[in-house]
What does this fold into?
Amino acid sequence: MSEESRTARFTVLPETTRSRPVVHELEIRRSRFIGCLARVDTELQAREFIAGLRRQHHEARHVCSAFILGADRDVMRSSDDGEPAGTAGIPMLEALSLRDTGGARDLSDVCVVVVRYFGGIKLGAGGLVRAYSDAVSAVLDTTRMLTRQRMVLTGIEAPHAEAGRWENELRAAGFAVQGTDYGASSATVTVALPDDGRAGDAFAARLAAITAGTGTFHTLGTEWVDLS
It folds into this structure.
């Protein structure tokens, strides 16, 4: 994922859904609508997830899908898979993109598939739109979500004798300490800070207090981190 994204945080599904997708089934006028939800990083992964469900449910009438990718949600795709145009894929995509994730609508890196086993009763265009939207909303309702935050990795140069204490005190202050590497002459304590333009000043002030002004730090890079 590009580090040049406009946003520094968005909402994702847990990593576990990559190998164990969330599944929830609705029955609507004798048709079975099976919602399947997984975390994905790329369009290839999304299409592989869809293809796998198509093979698993080869007797189903329709395997409709939608997915959103990227921190900026710049990739959005959907498929009606034989349902009347606009009655399945687009409503499913809207259910994903408009999902309230706690005051925001920023769910991404997600793929949802709704498998339909036709029950013999036609639902009409409006009925199909509601059914596919409800199937996505229902499976989302059963899913825990996480915040994915872009973090700045900061390295603090520390004397060997002080590294353990500095690490412990930074942890106690609520900073995300990633670990300590011990070199020949000094140690480097790595701390991850939210890349939001606000965390640096508070970190610098706390580090100065802990180290009596002797601690120095430098930026090591950025990475995306799932926050619990």
